[in-house]
Design brief:
It is a single chain. This protein is of the alpha/beta class. The chain contains 21 helices and 9 strands. Helix 6 crosses helix 20 and helix 11 packs across helix 12. The protein is globular.
């Protein structure tokens, strides 16, 4: 059996001088609280604070990063605990899922998923052996035993990680009752804030668009059969989110432009689209117009706007129909922020009340688009490397490309963007170590002094996301 160890210098530079500087920087950021301004956890986890049912469900089935890597080794989705949408689940039990992880553990080598899992298994579950076919049953049982303890309850993990604030991502149709109950709960001091994600209400191609409009009208008491009422209802939900603590919005609708449409044509176009009509070109134009509307509203209410685009989701339609979303079959594609955002930034890029954070899964975009854009517009900030890029080497390249083009002060800070509560600590630890490695190089090349490098490290890890996202 191979031991499972976490080396204190993991992810830090190999050279002695640079590693020494990186250790000094990391010692400054390691104890800082965690700020998680973008993620996908369910707030109910913290309201009910119940034990997680199964380590395989927690660490494998619900983590699409791990699912895709194991599926690439030929493991069927059902064997990873992914049940079919219709009818009863055909997924196997947790022990079998864990066995598949152990059998293919070597296939995860060199991936960030392996690094995160090692951190979680060592620090949270107390395992000291690398998973393998020979210890699959023993490690599964040990993980089950550990999962039943109070230390791994959701609220305990929140405190263990040193979280200061954690945000969820929510539909405008969410009534926010869970967030309200958590805010009034006197039994703990955690902060769980909602984030407004209006994709299903601004994209006419979204399944159930008409039904969502009807629900929006019911929720707000504002008629949404006309464009003006529709906009007012969207504003009303933004206000409700802000009252519940939200400080940001998030947008993932694909757009190819942000030109505003002719006001004289909007009423008729909206009527057609809301009843399932309109051409594909009209749908695309409306999506771009609505992204501009979201930016205009952000200038008024101050909610920080985030753009997560450039992903082809649910790549195999039949698989998505059978198994549902978030099972790993999403893939990066090119973005064109320069052209797409030109109308929007021409209007709001210098607005003092507007903040827009740009994310990408196309690594070349950091140097070609995001870096140059954020180096000019005061409203723009570069989001942390996301999804396929939240890996050590990709992060280091992003720090380099953005740092020398726009300056580190224009990086929004780290977001973990995770659906895995257990993985939050591991993800922040990895990002902080990679950042310190990058900054140590600048110090050793005499491009930054150690004091300024420390300031940059603590700003990225804690102070900047806290200030930028207003949390």
């Amino acid at each position: 059996m191979r031991p499972l160890e976490l080396h204190p210098n993991r992810l830090l530079p190999a050279g002695e001088e640079q590693r020494r500087v990186a250790r000094q920087l990391f010692e400054a950021v390691e104890p800082l609280p965690l700020v998680s301004p973008h993620g996908h956890l369910d707030a109910n986890l913290f309201l009910h604070n119940e034990p997680f049912a199964d380590p395989a469900e927690l660490l494998v089935t619900s983590d699409h990063y791990v699912v895709r890597l194991l599926h690439a080794q030929g493991v069927p989705l059902e064997a990873l605990g992914i049940g079919r949408k219709e009818g009863t689940s055909q997924a196997v039990g947790g022990r079998q899922v864990w066995g598949n992880l152990c059998e293919h553990w070597g296939a995860l080598a060199s991936t960030p998923s392996r690094l995160w899992l090692e951190h979680e298994l060592h620090e949270l579950f107390g395992l000291r052996e690398m998973p393998s076919p020979g210890n699959a049953d023993a490690t599964y049982e040990a993980a089950c035993d550990r999962l039943a303890t109070e230390e791994l309850l959701p609220r305990s993990l929140y405190q263990r990680f040193g979280l200061e604030v954690l945000t969820t991502t929510d539909s405008p149709l969410c009534e926010l009752r869970v967030h309200q109950e958590l805010a009034s709960d006197q039994t703990w001091r955690g902060r769980i804030l909602p984030t407004y994600r209006p994709d299903e209400l601004v994209d006419p191609s979204h399944p159930g668009f008409s039904a969502s409009l009807a629900r929006l009208a019911e929720l707000t008491g504002i008629e949404t059969d006309g464009y003006d009422g529709y906009l007012e209802a969207l504003r009303s939900r933004r206000e409700a989110f802000a009252r519940a603590g939200a400080t940001a919005t998030d947008h993932g609708v694909p757009v190819t432009g942000t030109e505003r449409l002719d006001p004289a044509e909007l009423a008729g176009l909206f009527r057609r689209l809301s009843h399932g009509g309109g051409s594909s070109a009209e749908v695309e134009a409306f999506r771009g117009h609505m992204l501009d509307e979201m930016a205009r509203m952000a200038c008024d209410d101050g909610l920080v706007m985030q753009l997560h685009v450039g992903v082809v989701r649910d790549y195999v339609a039949d698989t998505a129909a059978t198994y549902g979303p978030d099972i790993g079959q999403d893939f990066p594609t090119r973005t064109d922020y320069i052209r797409t955002l030109r109308p929007l930034l021409s209007r709001y890029g210098d607005h003092p009340g507007f903040r827009l954070v740009l994310y990408t899964v196309d690594e070349t975009t950091f140097a070609r688009e995001i870096g140059p854009l954020v180096s000019y517009f005061p409203a723009l900030f570069a989001g942390a490397p996301w999804w396929f890029l939240d890996a050590p080497d990709s992060m280091a390249r992003a720090f380099s490309a953005l740092g020398e083009t726009a300056g580190l002060a224009k990086l929004a800070g780290f977001v973990d963007d995770t659906r895995s509560l257990c993985g939050i600590g591991a993800r922040h630890d990895l990002a902080r170590r990679v950042l310190c490695g990058y900054l140590s190089r600048l110090v050793c090349e005499h491009r930054l002094g150690i004091d300024e490098a420390t300031e940059q490290a603590t700003a990225f890890a804690y102070h900047r996301p806290k200030a930028l996202f207003k949390v």
